[in-house]
Every structure is written in C-alpha cells, then in structure tokens.
Amino acid sequence: MNIEVLLSKEKLSIDRCYSSVVDEACGGICLFVGTVRNQNKGKLVTYLDFESYEPMALKEMKKIAEKGIHKMGANHISIYHRTGYVGISDIAVIIAVSSIHRKIAFEVCQYCIDQLKETVPIWKKEFLEDGSYWVGARP
To answer: Is residue 45 situated within a structural domain?
Structure first.
C-alpha cells in the first residue's frame, strides 16, 4: 500500500511508520516527528489532549497523502496522529514520506504536516499548571 493513515490513543511507533514507506526504488525517506514540549508562550505545559472527528480526519489525512503521491511525486506516505492524552516528550504526530530523490521527500513531508494542521479536524487542548485551553480557532 502506498498510503497509510492512522489515528490512535496508543503510543505511535516510529519504526512502524518508517517501515511502511521503505521501498527499494526510493533513495530518500523523510520523517517528521512532532513531540509535546513542556512550554508554550511562556507557560509551563503539563500535557495535551487531542480530539478528532475520526471519519473525516482519516479521510482528510488520506486526501493529503494522495496529493503528495499523485501531484507531488512521492512514492509512499504514512501519516500517524495521536488522540487522547499525550504527555510531555511523547510523540503526537509522525509523517513518513519516501520518494526516488530526497528533495521530493522533504517537500512532500513539509506539505503533509502543514496541510494536516490546516485541514484535518483534530483539536488540541493544552493543559497548564494553572488551567487549560483549546489551541487554535478552527472547526
């Protein structure tokens, strides 16, 4: 399969995501791993909680990957995202892209994370020492 998308309450596996895009015809694999940092805007973050509208999120993630393959020239794309509780230093998102040459892998990987943040219905609630709030103002 050239595309794999996943939403999971369980920890994400870099090895699984990487393995899903390995191809003898590809000379470049680009991985983006997004982790939870312990601060934002001068406040101490204790953890994040992600919610999604799963059917639409998976559909949008697949659409992003399809464009990366069919219009941008990647060979394989996997997009994984956590839902639920995600602690400090835990992995929240992994994107793996393989292509014949590295330049396409880099470009498509960046496109995928940028589009995921813009269009996929996944919402992030940031928990601080002194309260919590929903991040972003998108639907």
So the answer is: yes
Asked if 86 and 34 touch (Cβ cutoff 8 Å), the reply is no
Give a yes or no: residue 111 inside a domain: yes
Write the burial class of residue 18 (CB in 10 Å: 0-12 exposed, 13-18 middle, 19+ buried).
middle
Return d(Cα 40, Cα 54) in angstroms, integer. 27
Number of domains in the chain: 1
Could you tell me which residues are beta bridge partners of residue 95?
32, 79
CB 34 within 8 A of CB 117: no
pLDDT by 10s per residue, the chain, length 139:
699 999 999 999 999 999 999 999 999 999 999 999 999 988 999 999 999 999 999 999 999 999 999 999 999 999 999 999 999 999 999 999 999 999 999 999 999 999 999 999 999 999 998 888 888 643 3
Residue 83, token pair as written in the block:
């839902």
Range(s) of the domain holding residue 107: 3-127
- The answer to whether the predicted template modeling score (pTM) of the entire model surpasses 0.90 is yes
Angstrom distance (rounded) from CA 120 to CA 66: 14
Asked if the structure places residue 79 within a domain, the reply is yes
CATH code, 66: 3.90.1170.40
